[in-house]
Known about the structure:
Blueprint: H1 6-9, E1 19-23, H2 29-38, E2 44-48, H3 60-76, E3 81-84, H4 87-100, E4 105-106, H5 112-118, E5 123-128, H6 130-134, H7 136-145, E6 150-155, H8 159-164, H9 170-186, E7 191-194, H10 197-200, H11 203-210, E8 215-217, H12 220-233, E9 246-250, H13 254-265, E10 271-273
Parallel strand pairs: 1-2, 1-3, 2-9, 3-4, 5-6, 5-7, 7-8, 9-10
This protein binds D-glutamic acid.
Amino acid sequence: xxxxxxxxxxxxxxxxxxxxxxxxxxxxxxxxxxxxxxxxxxxxxxxxxxxxxxxxxxxxxxxxxxxxxxxxxxxxxxxxxxxxxxxxxxxxxxxxxxxxxxxxxxxxxxxxxxxxxxxxxxxxxxxxxxxxxxxxxxxxxxxxxxxxxxxxxxxxxxxxxxxxxxxxxxxxxxxxxxxxxxxxxxxxxxxxxxxxxxxxxxxxxxxxxxxxxxxxxxxxxxxxxxxxxxxxxxxxxxxxxxxxxxxxxxxxxxxxxxxxxxxxxxxxxxxxxxxx
Length: 276
Ligand code: DGL
């Protein structure tokens, strides 16, 4: 039987209770934005675990520990659902989290399925963290499409760090993107999957480096739709005409994080220290 977490059973979930969304840092804002657009009435809590970014090269045990700390916080906030807005954390920890907590937990994985359907060359390139690419979850996903398309993967060390630093060093970003993308295009890939939520924040630059003829796919809309489906099935979708609140927390320095999150969110934000 699925273990039940006592804390989750101690509060009543209603449509008005918030949804928790988290990532190792700012990357999950791309997912948060998709959710806010599709479900504007929902109250959202975003945790950027910036003090521990990047998750990519860290082991599963460390990532699971971080996810559990964030889950405990979300339960204190009495959330009705959680979105793991990080491919690396989804691969490392989502199965364990679902065993431990009985509320809906939506993860994100590289959008290989739509990419395979879109590719004309039948070669798909996947950009992701080393953790995601090496994970059993990704290998299983890849094996489902191996007979339809050739899937070429590329880990992108250093990219998350540049994005977390504010993404101002465009020359450095372009140099890294060329290094990561060129070999994929050389194998005939005509479709690129952004398998890390941070990369969606620099989608324009990735398109520029890859060229206009290359299709770029991420999982933003799919995650928002899956969340909507799960909430609707439980009768927990917020139907109000009033736009919901979006609150931000970070394990990094709140003052520095205020500027960083505002930059990628596109408007001023207040950031509260994440109570680790
Ligand atoms: N944004 C994350 C992902 O989707 C993790 C990036 C990182 O912290 O390495 O994989």
